Amino acid sequence: MSEMQSILSYAMETAQKLGAQAVRVRSSQAQNFSMSWHQQKIKRMRGDNSSTLSLQLYVDGRYGSFKTSDLRKESLETDIRQSIEMTRMFEPDECRGLADPEKYTNRAEIDLELFDDKIAVLKPEYHIEKCRTLENLAYSHTEIPIFDVRTSSSHSIYTDMLATSNGFFGKERYSFYNQSLSLVLNDGDKKSSYGCNSSSHHLTDIVSEEELANKASKYASYKLHTKKLASGRRTAIMDREIATYFLYKYLIPLSGMSLVNSQSYFLNKIGKKLGSDLFTLMDMPHIIRGSNSCLFDAEGMSTHDATIFENGVLKQYYLDTYSARKLKLEPTHGYNTNLVLKPGLRSLDAMIADVKDGIFIINFLGGSQDNTSGDFSFGISGVAIQDGKLTQNVAEMNITGNFLDIWNRLVGVGNDPRLDFALRIPSLRFDDVSFSGT
Amino acid sequence: MTWTRREFMTTSALAAASCAVLGCASSQKKVQMPETQAPASVLPVATPEKDYFYNHFGITREMIDQVLGKALSRGGQWGELFFEHSRQGSIRLQDGKVSSGSSKVLLGMGVRCVYEEQFGYAYTESLTLEDMMRAAEAAAAIAPNVNVGSIKERTTPEYSKFYSQEICWDVFELSQAIALLQDIEKRTRAKDPSIIKVTVSLNWYQRNVMMNTSDGVNAEDFVPRCALSLSVVMQRGDVIQSNGGAFGTLDTLESLCSENTKPKIDTLMNQAVARTAILFDAIQPKGGEMPVVLGGGDNGVMLHEAVGHGLEADYNRMGISVYATKLNQRVACPDVTIVDSGHIEKNYGALNIDDEGTPAQHTVLIEKGILKGYMHDKLSAKHYGVASTGNGRRQSYRYAPIPRMRVTMMENGPYEREELIANVKYGIYCETTTNGKVDIGVGDYAFYLRTGYLIEDGKLTAPIKNVNLTGNGPDTLSKITMVANDLGIEDPTGGCGKEGQVMSVSFGMPSVLVSSLTVGGV
């Protein structure tokens, strides 16, 4: 038994001894190394180990939780005792409790390949080489004067364990490698910046330095010499990373707690058509090497593929045990794993070539949404499209609408999702969207 | 916070119904115009426990000498040890019951070794000498192993106290806090029959820190923090609307639950209900460029984004900030004076001493329209050859400090708010805002109007909601044509994110007229 597993068992036993009838304990250990690089030199270097223990306590029908990085046994007993005493002061809530053990069963027996042995033994010299390569490539990808380039390279090794007092135990070990590039161009007295990164469980799945440098150079140049267009309705083409962010914002009120609090435009919308026929979205937890792949969720419930939207029709919420009981529904998963929007056949370039009057959006700046009504408004920058051609760079504009309306305006889906993202969303086209500028 | 993948998935994927962002709905208080000199008054409070880490965790001065020595053993020019023990708690009332709560403990120490403008950083969550030495060795690796850095004898700097130093969580009766939440829920519900949900949350936090540096500082601080937030959901017919409010303070939980806070809680309830009710009538306005009157207080988020971030010295030191070449130049009209202060008593952004051991200052950034200086940590101060302004802050021992704002505010101008509105033929009045963002290099920024009004022929008319406002920092500063005399300083409960670190900050502003901003609309 590892030292951490011993601490996890001790915490479980202590909580039960002190009066908790049901307990869920999770331990997380991480080893991290990161390096940032500037002008052919290491700028910052970090190395650290962290260990955290989290307990969810069910005491006399009441619920409380506790998390700590102080893993000394004497502190743990005191802190767990105090946490249980605090929990006893709350009012009972019949919906609180561990997941039904039946939900722990039928766990898929597959190797998700989330751990890369090669990442575990990376040395600082490897990171130096990656940072240097990225920096050099950045300088070779643009003719516009470069003001500044910063690169970074990092890796992490995680070991997580989850145990419940009603019989669940699960362990996950996974690795991550990340590299990033931030570029500032300076054309005359105008500066523009763009950053991009890639992160994956395996070194071989990372987006190449060449591709990152190419994208940063191209997109930073899109942010130079910008103008505002006149306000009006036109077509929006969202780059795949912007489309990913846009979908992520849209789905936030799909969570159980948003629904329980009546702060969700998805309330009572199961079975309703909320998007065009092109909008089919799957939650796929078992993608080999997938960024958010997992065999069980945070409660220990076994994961499985699920359809969230099918041809625009909402099929499922994200419900943990508590929110499901509050809503008198069956639990699903408490959160998304890998989300896959059914891709189309066309490239981004082909989608742009089809647009008569529109904006190719490459960046959101600020903005927000009303999770109850669905109203949204985001600042954007990008490039104007006229008769299929990218023309004038644009910025300081806004895209405004309502989330219950805009997915019906989805008329094009690209073929280019990023496979290193948990949300695999291709470039998207929306028609007749409101932009404000001058 | 280092997020594990699982934590990231559960908190950031889709489960998070709200995010801690700057300008999350907050209540506002009116204050006198601050002076550009540091206020002389300080709180008459008890001294926090001295030598906290020595007394409770077995740390000794000799251990600190050893670990600092190890950090500089390869020729680091400057080193620092940062110790932290923080405890947090929260309770939440939902569906009429206080039926859940949580607590959290963070214990650890970080070591930084600086060589020229490079640094190595490492932390440990075990405070044994062996583990601290290991962290110091990792941090020291940044230096080229040429010689051994020097360590000065440490003394404790003098600094004023701007928040309570009384540690009281261990003795506080939690039932008082539970009763407070129940009372708030009951009284809020009574204010409007269309209310279908009320959620009230109370968070509290105490942070003990100790800084020891090779340039001779030994300092400790204790920070208490509480925040109360209220969310209201109303239904009229088939239409559901929600809004809310919150306030935070650097004070004890006992103080928050006392009679003294009742007027503030009454204001919070009234505002949360009114700001939800108005959404039923509010419209998204027509978009485009137009004059905007930013109301006092809450709109300080614009100041934070358009000016504040660009004046944090790290991005100027790198030459990236849009303000990097504007020192001592006119950047705004003479009515505009902007300061960043740690000295606003009990405010969420108040600071006694920063996380590098520098007493927090009251720093003038823009004086009568002229850019006078930046917000510095020790690294940037050395680069510019000035003293640190005490802006070196970090989220926890897991991070190295960087320049961060405290309370960033604009001083009062000569006009009445109504004069500003009367000067607008067609535009908008921005009442409450949230979710600011800035691109520091370009200066473009945005913030989100939650509630406001159209201005037509110099008068407030239809209520508006949910639009994004965008502009460019220096351009907006130059377009501030009128500054009112109604400075409000916020008690926000959200955090400001920068380089992965979330920090408690605050802001304040009188009403201002900006001659043109881009307003999102339909």
Helices and strands in order, then pairings?
The complex is a heterodimer of chains A (438) and B (522).
Chain A lengths: L2 H15 L4 E17 L2 E19 L2 E7 L4 H16 L28 H4 L3 H17 L5 E19 L4 E19 L2 E11 L8 H14 L9 E7 L1 H12 L4 H5 L20 E3 L22 E5 L2 E2 L6 H7 L11 E3 L6 H6 L3 E13 L5 E12 L2 E14 H4 L3 E4 L9 E2 L3 E9 L2
Chain B lengths: L4 H9 L14 E3 L21 H6 L3 H11 L6 E17 L2 E19 L2 E7 L4 H12 L33 H16 L5 E19 L4 E19 L2 E11 L3 H4 L5 H16 L10 E7 L5 H9 L4 H5 L20 E4 L20 E6 L2 E2 L6 H7 L7 E2 L8 E2 L3 E4 L6 H6 L3 E13 L5 E13 L2 E14 H6 L1 E4 L4 E3 L5 E3 L2 E3 L2 E4 L2 E8 L3
Parallel strand pairs in B: 8-15, 14-22
Antiparallel strand pairs in B: 1-19, 2-3, 2-5, 3-4, 5-6, 6-7, 8-23, 9-10, 9-14, 10-11, 12-13, 15-16, 16-17, 17-23, 18-23, 19-22, 20-21
Helix pairs in contact in B: 3-4
The major pleated sheet of chain A works out as:
6 strands, antiparallel
Contiguous runs where pLDDT drops below 50 for at least 5 residues of chain A: none
H and E order of chain A: HEEEHHHEEEHEHHEEEHEHEEEHEEE
Main pleated sheet of chain B: 7 strands, mixed
Count all strands of chain A and give the number: 17
Helix content of chain A: 10-25%
- Radius of gyration of chain A equals 24 Å
Poorly predicted runs of 5 or more residues of chain B: 1-47
**What is the overall pLDDT average of chain B?**
87
Number of helices of chain B: 12
Largest interface: A-B, 105 and 92 residues
Separate helix tally of chain A: 10
What structural class do helix, strand and pairing data of chain B support? Answer: alpha+beta
Report what the structure shows.
- The complex is a heterodimer of chains A (438) and B (522).
- Chain A has ten helices and 17 strands.
- By secondary structure, chain A is of the alpha+beta class.
- In chain A, the strands form three sheets. A six-stranded antiparallel beta sheet of chain A has the order 3-2-1-4-5-6.
- In chain A, a hairpin with a 4-residue loop joins strand 4 and strand 5 (169-187).
- In chain A, helix 1 runs parallel beside helix 2 (73-88) and helix 4 (124-140) crosses helix 5.
- The model of chain A has no long low-confidence stretch (mean pLDDT 95).
- Chain B has helices spanning 5-13, 52-57, 61-71, 129-140, 174-189, 253-256, 262-277, 300-308, 313-317, 378-384, 417-422, 473-478; strands spanning 28-30, 78-94, 97-115, 118-124, 195-213, 218-236, 239-249, 288-294, 338-341, 362-367, 370-371, 392-393, 402-403, 407-410, 426-438, 444-456, 459-472, 480-483, 488-490, 496-498, 501-503, 506-509, 512-519.
- Chain B is globular.
- In chain B, helix 3 packs parallel to helix 4.
- Helices cover 20% and strands 36% of the residues of chain B.
- Classes of the chains: A alpha+beta (438), B alpha+beta (522).
- At the A-B interface, strand 1, strand 2, strand 3, helix 2 and strand 4 of A face helix 1, strand 2, strand 3, strand 4 and helix 5 of B.
- Strand 2 (41-59) of chain A pairs parallel with strand 4 of chain B.
